[in-house]
Amino acid sequence: MPVAAVVTGDIVNSTLLAPKLEKKLIGQLGILLKDHKFEFYRGDSFQVYIKHPAEALELLFRLRAQARCYSFIHDVRGSIGIGKMNAPVRELRTATSEAFVLSGRAFDQLSGDQRMVVHSINKEANTAFRLIAYYGDFIFKRLTSKQAEVVLELLKEMTQTEAAKKLKKSQATISKHLQAAAWSEIQKLIIEYKQVITQFKIV
Fold it and tell me: Which terminus of the chain has fewer CB atoms gathered within 10 Å of its CB, N or C?
């Protein structure tokens, strides 16, 4: 039985965006999700089905960086559920496989200013996932919009030189933003997340 990941999420403070900007942000998030099966509902809420669980954390980081580009008060809350898929995914809204259940329950348990959680079928792995999510959340909640713009481009696998050209900033400015944004730590979290999946043979 295959194992997949599901991200359940919503946009933080979407109602504080002008309608045109909210629509623009949802469109940008949709572009980031285009390689996966996804659905928006109730305006700013969404679910994403990811066949390869190793891709889920980086994808959630991209979504959060995109929202953070708008302002310090905007973000994406998201829960990653990693579990078995006992049936083909046709309609996300009615799917009941383990990954969907884990993701939905974890999202409902987000409280206070917590904006990210990772939960799998492996209890031992969840200890590591909890720390990864906690530290990732700590970093992303502190990103400025300028830092988020640069982080987003590198998460999309651009080089610093390419990001500088696209954002019309100097190489030195790009480097400064990345250092302030804890880019090296973001990269390490993505690597650690993938290693936990491999180590505990979740897939």
Answer: N
Whole-Å CA distances, 90 to 51, 85, 95, 123, 203: 13, 12, 8, 29, 21
CATH of 3-199, one of 3.90.700.10, 3.30.70.1230, 3.40.50.300, 3.40.50.150: 3.30.70.1230
Radius of gyration of the chain (CA): 16
- The strand pairing partners of 75, in sequence order, are 12
Count of C-beta atoms within a 10 Å radius of residue 123: 9
Q: Are 13 and 113 in contact (CB under 8 A)?
A: no
* Range 146-170 burial, b when 16+ CB lie within 10 A, else e: bbbbbbbbbbeebebeebbeebebe
pLDDT, tens digit (0-9, with 9 covering 90-100), for 80-107: 999 999 888 888 988 999 999 999 999 9
Q: Where are the alpha helices (DSSP H) in the chain?
A: 19-32, 56-68, 98-108, 123-140, 145-155, 160-167, 171-180, 183-199
DSSP 68: H
Contact 133, 118 (CB under 8 A): yes
Report the C-alpha gap between 117 and 7 in whole angstroms. 10
* Mean pLDDT computed over 48-66: 98
From the list 150, 131, 152, 129, the residue with the least C-alpha distance to 65 is 152
